[in-house]
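Structure (tokenized):
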């Protein structure tokens, strides 16, 4: 009861209610809250600290930046924060003005991110650059994942967040992780639209995911593994966060090819994967290999699926896979 009272006391202040309403629409940093709410940084920092201490906000550091967002709805603080936000009047003039200001800030964030990508030559999508059948791959992925509601989804190497956008209607919550801050800036801009507020992104290393064991019903790695120095380690970590007893992993990547330019120009670490190699990687990660879907194109692609058994991954097998 004390935790509930702490949360209620922390939210019982106009500015903090406005902050929660904004955080329900996406992640914001302190400077963005300052611009939207028109208040000083020291004052807002105090409000943010109180909300975080009460468990109503999550504070995620990415290098020099700190992002604030609502916790997962499964946590006590996250469920309370969402319950409070749901009871805020949609037609409140102050909240409506905050939403307008937030839309302007998000648009500016997307513009800056896009300009940064163009300056660094990173404003491109790999599947488009290789002329791969993106639409066919996306449809195959939708068909391969469990029918109906998927549950909690993790997209490893989310890039600009396209897969989160695609799968949003079928998940209860989704998280995309990437090691590129520039990619995450574009992903946040993409996910700021209505209908995508249950999707979030964060900076993370795919070999050391800052996530609990068994927390996701589905995990996807699309066009990621051919860059991995240690594919076995990446898949072992993906298996760790997959729900035991039926959690589904899908790897989308290139079939074996002889394109030397992918190694030289695009810095691919591996020239595609054979079905046998992927089967072996899944087995080493303690996963049960499933179906394989082939998508022909200028470079053939594969979608490999696997599931996690009810028992945990054996420790010695996990260690071997992560060496």
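Design, position by position:
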């Amino acid at each position: 009861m004390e935790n509930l009272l702490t949360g209620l006391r922390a939210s019982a202040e106009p500015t903090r209610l406005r902050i929660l309403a904004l955080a329900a629409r996406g992640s914001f940093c302190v400077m963005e809250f300052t611009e939207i709410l028109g208040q000083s940084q020291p004052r807002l920092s105090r409000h943010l600290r109180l909300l975080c201490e009460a468990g109503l906000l999550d504070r995620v550091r990415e290098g020099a930046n700190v992002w604030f967002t609502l916790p997962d709805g499964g946590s006590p603080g996250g469920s309370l924060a969402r319950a409070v936000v749901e009871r805020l009047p949609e037609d409140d003039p102050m909240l409506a003005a905050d939403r307008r200001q937030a839309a302007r800030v998000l648009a500016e964030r997307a513009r800056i991110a896009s300009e940064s990508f163009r300056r660094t030559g990173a404003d491109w999508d790999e599947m488009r650059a290789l002329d791969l059948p993106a639409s066919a791959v996306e449809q195959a992925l939708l068909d391969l994942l469990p029918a109906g509601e998927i549950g909690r989804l993790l997209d490893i190497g989310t890039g600009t967040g396209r897969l989160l956008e695609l799968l949003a209607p079928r998940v209860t919550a989704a998280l995309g992780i990437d090691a590129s801050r520039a990619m995450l800036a574009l992903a946040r801009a993409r996910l700021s639209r209505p209908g995508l507020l249950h999707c979030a992104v964060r900076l993370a290393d795919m070999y050391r995911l800052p996530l609990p064991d068994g927390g996701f019903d589905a995990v996807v790695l699309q066009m990621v593994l051919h860059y991995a120095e240690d594919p076995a380690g990446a898949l072992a970590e993906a298996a760790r966060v997959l729900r035991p007893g039926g959690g589904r992993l899908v790897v989308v990547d290139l079939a074996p090819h002889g394109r030397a330019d992918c190694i030289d120009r695009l810095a691919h670490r591996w020239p595609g994967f054979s079905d046998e190699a992927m089967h072996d990687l899944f087995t080493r990660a303690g996963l049960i290999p499933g179906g394989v879907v082939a998508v022909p194109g200028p470079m053939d692609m594969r979608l490999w699926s696997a599931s996690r058994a009810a028992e945990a991954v054996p420790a010695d097998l996990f260690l071997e896979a992560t060496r």
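Reviewer-requested clarification: The beta strands are 58-62, 65-69, 151-156, 171-178, 199-203, 218-222, 248-254, 287-295, 301-308. Residues 4 and 80 are 8 Å apart (CA to CA).
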